[in-house]
Structure formats: structure tokens, C-alpha cells
Amino acid sequence: MAHHVTPRNLPTAQGPVYLVLLWPDQAGLWKGRIKDARTGAETPFEQLEELLHWLETHKYSETRRSV
Q1: What is the distance between the alpha carbons of residues 36 and 2, in angstroms, rounded to a whole number?
Q2: How far is it, in rounded angstroms, from Cα 37 to Cα 24?
């Protein structure tokens, strides 16, 4: 049986890595935590809109840091 390798788009070694943990709450809405893989710092969020805002904010701050 041949082993199939799945290509993955991983960040560069210098880039930040965040884990996003999601789960449904009692009302069926999504909530979760964002975890910085390098520092272990966690940021909770109660709605997907908060997650999207956090991602947009950090995308631009990481771009400015790398310039």
C-alpha cells in the first residue's frame, strides 16, 4: 500500500503560530480560545466576530513587525 503525503501550507519558522480552539456553547453559538504556540498565552473569545477581529488586528501588527 502506497503512503500518500498531504501537502501542508505551514507558516515560516520565524512567523507566529496560533492555535484556535472552538466549541459550541449552550445556545449553539461558537466560543473558544486563541493560544500563542510560542508563549502559551491564551485569549478567550465569546463570539466568532471577536475571533475575526483578533485575527485581523494581529495580521496587521505582525506585518508591521516584520517590515
Answers
A1: 36
A2: 23
Backbone Cα Rg of the chain: 15
Going by C-beta distance under 8 Å and a sequence separation of 6 or more, which residues neighbour residue 36? 16, 17, 18, 42
DSSP 2-66: PPPPPP--PPPTTS--EEEEEEE-TTS-EEEEEEETTT--EEEESSHHHHHHHHHHHHHHHHHHH
**What pLDDT score does 32 carry?**
96
> Residue written as cell 508591521?
64
Q: Going residue by residue through the chain, which has 67 residues, state the pLDDT in tens, using 9 for 90 and above.
A: 567 777 777 666 677 888 999 999 999 899 999 999 889 999 999 999 999 999 898 876 665 555 4
